[in-house]
Give the backbone structure.
Amino acid sequence: MSWSIGFDRTWNRDIGYGVPAECDHPDCHEKIDRGLSYVCGGEPYGGDDGCGLYFCEKHQTAGDQLCERCATLDADGECLPPFNPKPDISEWVQHKLNHPSWAEWREAHADEVAQMPAVTEETA
């Protein structure tokens, strides 16, 4: 099984090393992908310890690959609430809207396609 492209129902977005993205830390704009190297928890969908969001190396703890919220426990020993996930970057939106490999998906998900942001050359 390849982890190139998949879907995360928890965060309702495409994941995998084939999906270009931006670090989910709110103060960061580092370009990454949504592959296992960047997922909080180091396992698909975050495993048992992570939130399943995606962070650049600067925003992961060394060794356990957790974001700062999952690495920090509150007074009850629970992780802090996760950051809000960032939307897809224009490069990925343009790919899904235009690449022939996504034609069948576009047909099957016409309502979702209609809600995707328009991508212009300026934002691509």
Observations:
- The chain has a mean pLDDT of 90.
- The longest strand covers residues 13-22.
- Residues 6-84 form one domain.
